[in-house]
Amino acid sequence: MLEEDNNQNTELKRPPQLTLLCVLSFISGGISIIGYLYFFGLYDQIVEMAKEGNIPQFFGEEVDYSFLIEISRTYYLWSLLLYISSVIGVFLIWNLNGIGFHVYALSQVLLLIIPEIYITAKPFPFFDIMITILFILLYFKNLKLLGRL
After folding, report:
1. Which residues of 6-32 are buried (b: 16+ CB within 10 A; e: fewer)?
2. Which pLDDT score is estimated for 9?
3. What does the DSSP 8-state code read for residue 58?
4. Cα separation of 135 and 142, whole Å?
5. Distance, CA of 63 to CA of 7 (rounded, Å)
6. Rounded to the nearest 5°, which phi and psi values hold at 2?
7. Which of 84, 112, 103 is nearest to 149 (CA)?
8. Chain CA centroid to CA 46, Å
9. Per-residue pLDDT at 12
10. CA 143 – CA 149 distance, rounded (Å)
11. Of 57, 81, 96, 125, which residue has the fewest beta carbons closer than 10 angstroms?
């Protein structure tokens, strides 16, 4: 009886900051998974529409979608798989499993590298790098404070 009470008292609780980080990562990862699944699944149709110039305009603006023709379907597959592994890592972090941090961090770093391989005319991803570093550091800080790393 006393052992059960001690186990309940020593059970770790997820801090609010870690909960917020996980929720933001779930939202971002979920939207990215849907988007990359869409582009991977409908790749041939999207490329055909880009070649013909039949892609709908947003807010009445003329947008050049010809860059979509140059991006390989493999890029969308890799991105999809890495976002799935990133969300799995966040799920593990949500459950206070330290391995999730490593899965998440590796996935996010690879997500920075993949576009550099497949997209030639891409500007330097300064903002993406800063956000990735920020989230990795915040996850690291929270899990280290909990003694989970």
Report:
1. eeeeeeeeeeeebeebbeebeebbeeb
2. 47
3. B
4. 11
5. 59
6. -65, -35
7. 103
8. 23
9. 81
10. 6
11. 57
Alpha carbon distance 142, 20 (integer Å): 11
b/e for 34-65, b at 16 or more Cβ within 10 A?
A: eebbebbeebeebbeebeeeeeeeeeeeeeee
For the residues 101-110, what does the mean pLDDT come to? 97
Average pLDDT, the chain: 88
For 39-105, give the DSSP string.
HHHTHHHHHHHHHHT-PPPBTTB----THHHHS-HHHHHHHHHHHHHHHHHHHHHHTT-THHHHHHH
Q: Where are the domains of the chain?
A: 16-145
- Number of other residues whose CB lies within 10 A of the CB of residue 144: 12
Measured distance CA(57)–CA(59) in Å, rounded: 7
The CB-side HSE value for 139 (13 A sphere, CA atoms) comes to: 31
Structure tokens at 112: 């920075």
| Residue 71 · residue 31 · CB < 8 Å | no
